[in-house]
Amino acid sequence: MRRLVLLAAAFAIVGAASVAAASEPVDLEAVTRIRDQGFRHSQVEELAWRLSEAVGPRLTGSPQSAAAHEWARARFEEWGLRSWVESYDFGRSWALERCEVRMLAPYVQPLEALAEAWSTGTDGAVTGRVVRATLESEEDLETWTGKLAGAIVLLEGEREPEQIEAELFERYDDAELADLQRYEIPDERGDRWRGQMLKRYKFWQRLAAFYEAEGVLATIEPSSRDNGVVRLSGNSAKRDPAVPLGVPALVMATEHYNRLVRLLDKGIEPELEIDIAVQWFEATSGANTLAEIRGSELPGELVVLGAHLDSWHAGTGATDNGGSSAVVMEALRIIKASGLVPRRSIRAALWSGEEQGFLGSRDYVTRYLATRPEPTDPEQLALPAWARDTTWPLQPLPGHSSHSAYFNTDYGAGRIRGLYAQENAAVVPIFEAWLAPFADLGADHVTMQTAGGTDHLSFDRVGVPGFQFIQDDMDYSRTHHSDVDTFDHLSREDMMQSAVIAAAVIWHAANRDERLPRKPLPAKPEGDTSH
Ligand SMILES: [Zn+2]
C-alpha cells in the first residue's frame, strides 16, 4: 500500500513537471550567446589563477582576504558593473608566518606539520619530549594533571591510512545521479550533530585552559587525509578575544604522525623541535563583495549568484572556494559581455567567513532579508551564533520579497551537473526547463534533495529560495582545507562549463514573469518554548 501511494505521488510530480516544463519559457538565443562568450572568450582560468596564486590563502580578516575582495571589486568595475564591499565585525584574525617541525631523537629529520588557524606561536624554536595522552573527558584531565609540563602531546592514536581504491578524480556516473533522485525523509540527525558540536565546543575551552595551566608545549593531531596531505582548519571561536588561545596546535601528515605513535608504543621517546611564528590581527572586519547588473524592467528585484571567497590557510583555497568564486565572477562577465540586459537586477556575492559559520551570507541576510530577535538568555548569549537556539518571530525586511532567489556554488571546482531543488517542488519543472539545453554538457539533473553545508542555507532559513548546484566532486574530498588545495587541482574546462550554466540559470531567473515559487515561511516548531 505504502509503495502504491509513493508511486502515485511520483507520477503526479512527473506529470506536473512536464506540464510546467512545457510552459516555462527558455531563451535559446540567450543560451547561444552565453555559450559563445563562455566557451570562446573565457576568462575564468585567469580569474581563478589570480585569486589562488597571486592573492593566496584568504582566511577571513587577514590582509590577503581584504586584498582579494578589493581585487574582485576592481575587476567587476573594469567590466562596467557597479561593485562595492560591505563589512561586518569579524574579531581576531590570524596568519601563519613560519612552521617548522623537526625530530631530534631518535634521529634527526624534518617532519611535515602545520599549525591550525588561531594557533599560538612558540617564540622561537622550542624542544620537548613527545607524550601520547587521551584528553577527552574530565577524568582524562585528572589522570594527566601534573604530568605534561614541557611535553608535546599527541592527542590521538595511530590512524590507519585508507587504501585508495577509488578513482582520484570522481565524476557522478549514471547510478549516482539516479541515487540523487531518491528523497530521504529527515530525521533528528541535525539536532544530534548540534548537540555534539556544542559539547565539543564547551570542552575545547576547558582543554585550552588545561594545556596552559599544565605547561604543555604543543599538541599534535594526525591529518584526516593520507599520502602526505595535511588537512586542517582551526578553532574559529578564538576570534573572540575573550576565548583562551591555549597552546600551539599542530596537525601532522598521517604517515609522520603514526611513526611517532609507533616509536612511543615500542618504548622509544621521540624528541621534537618546533618553531611556529604567527601574526595576529585584532578587531578585523569580514567583507562581502557585491556586484550588480541593473535590471531593465524590475531593477528593484534581485537574483543573486554567490560563492565564498574566504579559505583556510594551508593551501591557496583553489577548490574551496577560489574556483567557484572565479565561476561567479565569470558568469556575470559573460552576461555583461554578451550584451544581455536582464529584466530583474542580477547580483554577484563573494562572501567571507563561510568557514566560520556562513558569517558573510548571514550578515547579508540580516541586513536585507530578515531578522530574528537577539537571545536574552545569558547562557545562549555566551555561545557562538551557530550554536544558539533559533529565535522567533522571523521579521522579514523589504529585501525578503524583492529577492527572487539565491544560487550558490561551493562543492569544489568540478563542473555543474544540475541543481538541488531544496525540497521546493514547484521549482523542479522550472529548473528542468532551464537546464534542458545543457543536456549535452551533462548538466540537466534536478533533485528534490536538500543540499547543506554552505551559504545558500542562510537564505533558505529565512524563507528566501536558496539553492546549491550539483557538482562533480573530482578530488575535492581530498583537497579541501588541505595544503594541496591549489591551482593544480582546478580544471579549466570544468570552470568554463560551470560559468556558462550558472550564467544561464541566473539569466532565466532574472527574466521570468514571476519571482521563483517559495516554500512556506519557516515557522516556530510546535513544542518549542524558547522566545
Ligand atoms: Zn567551501
Q: Can you walk me through this structure?
A:
- This protein is an alpha/beta fold and 531 residues long.
- It has two domains: 19-93 and 283-511, Aminopeptidase (3-Layer(aba) Sandwich); 94-279, Glucose Oxidase, domain 1.
- It has helices at 2-23, 28-40, 44-55, 63-78, 138-144, 174-179, 189-214, 254-265, 318-337, 359-369, 378-381, 398-402, 428-435, 456-460, 476-479, 492-511, and strands at residues 82-105, 109-111, 113-115, 126-132, 151-154, 218-222, 249-252, 271-293, 298-308, 344-351, 370-371, 395-396, 403-408, 416-420, 445-447, 466-471.
- The strands form two sheets. Strands 1, 2, 3, 4, 5, 6, 7, 8, 9, 10, 13, 14, 15 and 16 form a 14-stranded mixed sheet that branches. A two-stranded antiparallel ribbon has the order 11-12.
- β4, α5 and β5 form a beta-alpha-beta unit.
- Bound molecules: zinc ion (ZN).
- Zinc ion is lined by residues 308, 320-321, 354, 410.
- Zinc ion binds next to α9.
Describe the secondary-structure layout.
Elements lengths: L1 H22 L4 H13 L3 H12 L7 H16 L3 E24 L3 E3 L1 E3 L10 E7 L5 H7 L6 E4 L19 H6 L9 H26 L3 E5 L26 E4 L1 H12 L5 E23 L4 E11 L9 H20 L6 E8 L7 H11 E2 L6 H4 L13 E2 L1 H5 E6 L7 E5 L7 H8 L9 E3 L8 H5 L5 E6 L4 H4 L12 H20 L20
Parallel strand pairs: 4-5, 5-6, 6-7, 9-10, 9-13, 13-16, 14-15
Antiparallel strand pairs: 1-2, 1-8, 3-7, 4-8, 8-10, 11-12, 14-16
Helix pairs in contact: 1-13, 2-16, 3-9, 9-16
